[in-house]
Protein 1
Amino acid sequence: MSYLEPQQEAQGDGARQVPARADRTTPENPWPLRLLSENLHAYIARCAPTWVEGQIIELNQRARVTYVTLRDVDAEISVPVTLFANETAHLDRPLEKGMRVVAQLKPDFWTKTGRLSMLGHGIRPVGLGDLLERLERLRRALAEEGLFDAARKQPLPLLPRRVGLVTGRNSDAEKDVIRNASLRWPAVDFEVREVAVQGAGAVRAVTAALQELDGLPEVDVIVIARGGGSFEDLLAFSDESLVRAVAAARTPVVSAIGHENDQPLLDWVADLRASTPTDAGKRVVPDVVEERGGVARARASLDRAVRTFLDREAAGLAGVRSRPALAQPQDMILLREEDVDRLRSRALSAVDARTLRDRDAVRHLRARVRALSPQETLQRGYAVVLDASGTVVTDASGVREGDRLGVRLAAGELGVRTETVSARRPGQRPGDA
């Protein structure tokens, strides 16, 4: 469908040319209102129908037409929708306020009144099965990204300086968390953010409160708490944007939504899942009674260990002191003195015996040396004959008659002259040839 062509308008005796485009109109040459309305109708009629999801917040049923107002499930945005009788006749159950539906909307501009309306087609309630299927697909997708991995979950501090609490305004969940935490640790301090936890705007409000508390350095743990409700009431805590905000938080987050059997996606991504708000109040802080008991038990155990150590060391010291070495130390000295005397006597005896043996050996060696010396031979009556040059004469053939010889005796020397020379050998008698 094309826009309407501008026409010539009669004005007095003549006609004026209407501008072809809206941006060319002027105060002197405006469009007639019908042309604007007809062009808007033609432009909007070209819009393609769109499937949307929303919640019915107003419902006005008449004989042939039903007027409803749909609101976005997460934001405060609503549009009126017109449904003709044939669109609602096929429904298994009548439309009701608060019902979540999907419908195909086609915008329509009513030229006579200048009103924009939405014509609804194929409206049908969003069943529980459809919601569960969507959540399961989202859960699998987030799990594949690793948002539910145990390795990325942060441990809760033993004793947080301040506990951040995101909950409904004046809700039982807030009272349960604060009361149970205070009973366990009376000095616990809370930073509470009361926001909408159901309906449109709940996701945005909870996310903003979470991010605000995550930015406070004194908040060590954040609890997101809500009491029980229907499946549709808890859908905000399965929203993808809220789940990703919890995954990105630097502060550990505790999920305490509904009851034990309620399990929104927030439970999967939180660092700790509490079955109820009461359980969350018990798990974010330690029990002061148990901690005091633990301190008392630790102190008693330490006292026992110290006493046992002292008793064992005292017994060991007493055992050492009772030994003879410390009970009668002089006995040890006397024993060592006797050992020294005995060893001294043995050493002296050994030295004396060795000295006597060595003295006898020296005497024997001296006698042997003396017996082998030339002087001892001379003492027995032998003599050494020397020629004029001082050489010992051992053969008579080397001496001639009349040679002067020296004779060395055991005591003194003689000078002699050779009268005769004989070649007789030792053992031969005189006259033998």
Protein 2
Amino acid sequence: MTMPEYEPLTEEEVRDDLLSRVIDIVSHPEQQETVSLSFISEYSDADLAHLLESVTDQYRSLLCRKIPVDRGWPILHLLHYETARHVLDLLSTEQMQGLLKRISELDILTFAEILPNEVVEDYLDQQASLTTEQIQQALSYQDEEVGRYLNSDILRSRPTAPISRVLERLSKHKSKEFVAVYAVDAKGEYQGACTIEQLRHVEPSTPLSEIITDIEPVLDEQDITKAAQHLNPVAGFAWYPVQKEGKIIGAIAASTLMLRLKERSLEVLASDTAQDEEDLFTPVSVAAKMRAIWLTTNLLTAFLASWVIGLFGEALQQVVALAILMPVVASMGGIAGSQTLAVALRGIALNHLKRSNLKLLLDKELKIAAFNGVLLGALIGLVVSYWFNSVPLGGIIFVAIVFNSLAAASSGTVIPFVLKQMKIDPAVAGSVILTTVTDVVGFFIFLGLGSLLLLS
């Protein structure tokens, strides 16, 4: 009797199963006595990075305790930058010390902005003077500039130099791992590039000029995404020259450029975004603060629209106040919903939002909506009470703003997920349905309460 053959799980199925198991264990504390989260160490770095991106900071804190410290940096490099910031903030002093014992030059360059200043300074103090100079040079560039990621281990040579001379120079620096050779003339102007491998497959007497390839250099202060977009790949070349003021100062890995281009493609896929800094499970306090800035900005434009409608108030007679304030209710609900919709769309695009963690996201969004709804609703209510000399009207718009914010958060979270399950593009249809929900809910509550309390 032959045993049935089972197809191995796909990468997505493995991650969905891992996410469901973790949420089930954490959601039922009584299970934690018999079921430990230590099983997560059996999964790959990529799987664990995906898991951290797909849960709230409460779950992240528990997971970080179970991830072996020697896998910390590799996993951090796979995370969205803001998620990495949140994870580092959640680490205990002991966990952070364990990470710092294993920190490398790449870790410093990548996370310099979110690591404590003393950590960066202590690392530089421990390095050789040449290494320190190179790191400080890299840190002088912005995070999105090419110069931040350049490798200075290159060899410059005259085009007329024979290959034997170039190989001799390479062998003198055994401590260095050169990544490329660049031909420059007497004035230091770039002439072309070749790989180390090419040097070993030609006659030693051959001049360097006969094997170099004309590869367009990348500028040191150029945005890394734009550099990747305009890159002309050349077969066999893994490193591309970086130029500053007409001189070649290093090389940048093609893999670095391609990785940034891939990340940018995912960002474009979820381009309808509330904040570049916010990931799927940014802590409530941080996310609420970032969104409140734009909600307040929108509030100013909403009152401007109300003032314009108010110019025609005499024609509306008894309902003039309600008509003037209608755009405020609709606009606040719409912008709050679009922010939630943007985060959900990004979660779908990055494959982080699943049925198993939908409730986590909904809980988070409702908390943010309640916070901003009460805060801005109270502000609007006070302004309206003073403006129209009517406390009941201020109370009506306060209630309408709060409930419309909650409706916007709920619909902004659930609508794109439901549309995806129905195989409808949530990026196209989501905003249309969301606007309808927020307008109907907002106007029904606002005008309904107004009719009952003001016109009865």
Protein 3
Amino acid sequence: MKRNTGQDRNVTQNWKPATQAIRGGTMRSEFGETSEALFLTSGYAYDCAGDAAARFAGEQVGMTYSRLQNPTVQMLEERIALLEGAEACRTMASGMAAMTAALLCQLEAGDHLVAGRAAFGSCRWLTDTLLPKFGINATIIDARDPQQFEDAVRPNTKVFFFETPANPTMDVVDLEAVCAIAKKHGIVTVVDNAFATPVLQRPLDFGADVVAYSATKMMDGQGRVLAGAVTGSAAFINDVLLPFTRNTGPTLSPFNAWVVLKGLETLDLRIMRQSENALKVARFLEGRVPRVNFPGLPSHSQHNLAMRQMKAAGPIFSLEVDGGRKQAHALLDALQLIDISNNIGDSRSLMTHPSSTTHSGVAEEKRIEMGVNEGMLRLNVGLEDPDDLIADLDQALRAAGL
């Protein structure tokens, strides 16, 4: 394969994000295709046995096995790295594969990490259940307060792990302050940036070391495939993460990589429009329900911080009703346009009840600690006309007694 003209990293890293999202990482075969080629192959042939030995020894550039390299996957990895402002990227089969790999590749028995209390249910399972099985202890803190990170540091603390904005409470973490604390103590900061994507927020610009994604969400953006990604320095990705993924195999398929490549082409357009739609919908809901948790609203306690480190507040937020699960479910059941679904980042508007879906595997006392109550609903605002979404929510709210 030959690279597209201009695909030198020194050139592409100077392109604007909109250009990188379309052309970054592009490679073309001898056929000169304009759209990225889809390479559905598990293995690769060599001209001679010596070439095979040289590639496995790292002495010759080239592909060896699609658990390690694939041309389509490589294009996606280079494109995400460019958008993130990172030196390198490795993609995974899902967002949780990415989160798991980003932590386990650098932690071992006797290590300690500090994690934000507000998180996706499966991320809390990692910190609360999986890591302790391997002798890795976690201190769970309120990540909204940087001082709590400082206070939780121990001599064996290796990682700070948090989401911002957090799922589904929409807690915001002061990236600059927390990353500065981490660097002072030689701690690696791992940020789950799935709710924002590099279009709205680039944690590396604030001092983060590693940024992880569920690319299933906004990067695909149309509810089609599962994918995950981890970005960071070349040293971390190639020397720390790659040995773990090479031998454990959380590999992204070429087809899923190709779909996400197509999603990235419209990511900026989608997420900015969905952010605008979400703000309009949130303003409507603010006058109808007891609480709306959306950093884009001035009423959010961390609005100023969010707007300082984010380009826009994104398409996802949560709201709360006083009638607990019964009223929350009644509202969901009355929806006519918005789908009941636990996915997010989709171009379609989706709503779910976290306590009985995404966070149902988290013990009740921990859900309460996280701020996930029985009256909370999470809304992903899509690309539909926001007035239609407001009309649907209005009739559903009335049907639920609100």
Protein 4
Amino acid sequence: MKRDELNLRRDRIIALLSENEALSARELSDCLSVSVQTIRADLRDLDTADLVQRRNGVARLRQQSENIAYLPRKAASRLEKQRIALAVKNLVPDGARIALGTGTTVEGCARMLATRQDLFVATNSIPAVSALQNAPGAVVALAGGQVRLRDLDLIGTASLEFFSRYRVDLAIFSCGGICDSGQVLDYNTEETAARKAITDCAKTRILVVDSAKFGLDLACSMHSLWDYDIIVTQGEISPAIRARCADAGCRIVAPQDDA
């Protein structure tokens, strides 16, 4: 089986479990038209990656008090994140000044942006710096402070002060979750403070969020979807929230499946 087909099926498993509290291997096999044995193999690997929990014959997404480690997160919704990154690339011109936040979706955006020329990028993400190393004419500034080894980023007072020194065209950032009322959530107050610092230094604020983050109930809230300028997501947004976004001048971009 082709690797893309395998990853796409596992992305769909994550999406189905994000929409349902729990599903059995049989229910997933019926939804995806593959054998129960194939689904069980997928669930074993997703369980090993700390993305799915199997118990009493059903599988559900892991709900945690802190985010899962960086490398397992890169595997979650991989193809969807690639589509998001391509859509973001089309929003960024050559020569733009950009602030990049943390997380695997933003790292994917950085990899796509590496084909743009003469960018200035300020970031607190170590993987984003690595992704931009071959970008033609790029100038990259990395925040100082203590590294979170689990997440490969820098947050805290030094990072907040770092972003306050810049004025950029675009801020590209993610979050821990989106609740049903449209509030933008994170796992702790350090992450919400970092997101505020990044958004405060930009003329245009772009939130990138994969569909698995919709409906998550996390402890820390700052901003709502309509507080930003552009939302790039394939997640399902209710008509009421879409209307609030439209009233506030917030544009919702839905990446194409074939991107």
